[in-house]
UniProtKB/TrEMBL annotation:
Residue ranges the record marks as coiled coil: none
Record membrane topology: Multi-pass membrane protein
Organism, as annotated: Baekduia soli
Keyword Cell membrane: yes
Transmembrane segment boundaries: 32-56, 76-95, 107-124, 144-168
Domain of life: Bacteria
One of the record's GO cellular component terms: plasma membrane
Family per similarity comment: Belongs to the cytochrome c oxidase subunit 3 family.
Entry's EC annotation: 7.1.1.9
Keyword Membrane set for record: yes
Catalytic reaction annotation: 4 Fe(II)-[cytochrome c] + O2 + 8 H(+)(in) = 4 Fe(III)-[cytochrome c] + 2 H2O + 4 H(+)(out)
Annotated ranges, domain Heme-copper oxidase subunit III family profile: 33-207
Protein name: cytochrome-c oxidase
Gene Ontology annotations of biological process type: aerobic electron transport chain
């Protein structure tokens, strides 16, 4: 009887090679948790730039920001660009809702529209740099302006790469109402990019 028990134990052990499965202490999906931790780290990066911005506003005479040397920021153009980026969040939400309801056309149209709106935003931002009339090294205000908007532009570029991959996969039929985590995680990142731009626009262009 004892021999049979030992034999059964060995047979059971033979099915469990390698290390035991990892213990998941959190109910949050690993991909989602990773994205949330990444976003927290990026908020800290933006926070460092905003700290420099407010320091310059405090120490400069009369708290001068812009205009400087006859150059001002294109507030109206940036406002239109803000509307474009916020619209991309709406179309992304449309796409996410569509795939959950198995509306494949709505999903594909929403993802493609979101990608094109994000690309338009980035194009307008680059065109603004080309015609703004000052360079990053001209003065501290210019350095902070290009630093903050450029940092955000880099995040938009990363987001467009992610959205582009999701859009391509959408047209290949890789998502379904049951399996769409690959849409939600890049979507969280894109919404973060949109929210950060509202903060950047309000702080840099409006205040």
């Amino acid at each position: 009887m004892e021999a049979a028990s030992i034999s059964a134990t060995h047979a059971h052990d033979d099915h469990h090679h390698g290390p035991p499965p990892a213990n998941r202490s959190s109910r949050v999906e690993p991909g989602l948790l990773g994205m949330l931790l990444f976003i927290i780290s990026e908020v800290m990066v933006f926070g460092a730039f905003f700290t420099a911005y407010f320091f310059i506003r405090v120490v400069t005479p009369d708290h001068t920001w812009f205009p400087i040397d006859g150059k001002d920021l294109p507030v109206a153009v940036a406002g239109v660009n803000t509307a474009i980026l916020l619209s991309s969040s709406l179309t992304l939400h449309w796409a996410q809702t569509a795939i959950k309801n198995n509306n494949r056309f709505g999903f594909q149209a929403g993802m493609l529209t979101t990608f094109l709106l994000g690309l338009t935003f980035l194009f307008i931002q680059i065109n603004e740099y080309a015609h703004i009339g000052f360079r990053p090294q001209d003065h501290a205000q210019a350095t902070i302006f290009f630093g903050l908007t450029g940092l955000h532009g880099a995040h938009v570029t990363i987001g467009l790469v992610l959205l582009g991959m999701v859009t391509i996969r959408a047209f290949k039929g890789h998502y379904s109402p049951e399996h769409h985590h690959g849409v939600e995680i890049p979507g969280i990142y894109w919404h973060f990019v949109d929210i950060m731009w509202v903060v950047v626009y309000t702080t840099i262009y409006v205040l």
